[in-house]
Amino acid sequence: MNYKIFYLSGLMVFYTVLLPGQVSVRIFAGQDPISAVFNVTEGEYEIDHGAGGKLAVQKDTPVIISKYNGRLAVKLMNDDGFVCDSVLISGNTGRDLFSLRINGNFSARQYYSGDLKCFPDLGRLVLINNCSIDDYIGGVVRTEGGQGKNLEYLKSQAVIARTYMYKYFDKHISDGYNLCDDTHCQAFNGVSSDTLVTQATMQTKGLVILGPDSTLIISAFHSNCGGETSPPENVWLSGQPYLKKVFDKYCISSPNARWRKTLSISDWTASLKNAGLTAVPADLSLLNFSQITRQNDYRIGIFTVPLRQLRSDLNLRSTFFSVKVEGTMVVLSGRGYGHGVGLCQEGAMVMASKGFNFIQIINYYYQGVIVTDIKNAVK
Ligand SMILES: [Zn+2]
Ligand SMILES: [Zn+2]
Known about the structure:
Helix content: 10-25%
Low-confidence stretches: 1-15
Number of domains: 3
Number of strands: 24
Number of helices: 7
Distance between the termini: 30 Å
Shape: globular
Bound molecules: zinc ion
């Protein structure tokens, strides 16, 4: 028995006490599933609905879990099913895999290891996967790691994902789980079947990145920095000695190094007006703007607007761009993809292909850090 039932504000919450080496992740957190279909892929499973007695779940016998009047309806194929407040479908062999397909606005099937726990919360069907930390890290590396195929690159990604996981292990603890699978935490689309990802995870088992004060770092990363990483731009990131600007010579020929966007002068000035520009200058060449090195603000005379605001308004790939009026159009010539803070993934891929190991890669993008076992971290 590895769970307890608590009564909170009249609602029953199924709270799992995790085994060591496990993590509890809310899956399909960004979706609003109406129902979920569970299938055993490997191993043996049984259902516990909290009212005594357990039901074995066979391979090829889907279990359908649906929202039902504020509770859950659980139906096994060839069975009448039952209604309950929460359900735990747990693996018995230690190497148990299942697939889960959700129905709702978004329909998808993904593969997971470990256990599945479900309960309703404020009209939503909450799906939680308890799995081993190693499986979770492998899944995050597969989802967040991009196209990199080099082992040392993947090892850098595994250490970054593990650092994030431990730093934010309690992020959703009041919701009844550790982390969600959305980009709010770390994207996780289930277990990885990529053997290189598994090797990267196992060869870095337990390793995390600590800053000069021996606490876990904010392991920010992005796709491509455009040749220059961004100093921490947000207040919550400021003052981190390990996040300084790096002039990155490795990523400048990579796929996301450059971008270009053309828009009408009226669209461009509309977003400047949104940001507080009162009058568009008669001389349109005053709209031109050049970023040789990263700036924080776009300027016209005394008017300034944070580049990150323009990036967000216009859905631009980065804040590292220059502006040039050409006829009736404005051309934005940009560099990089993402916020630019911390590790540059495409630069890290090139470093790995040139023979740098994962520790050298991590030390290139985060300054004065050490890669060490989680047991050396100061809370
Ligand atoms: Zn989250
Ligand atoms: Zn870069």
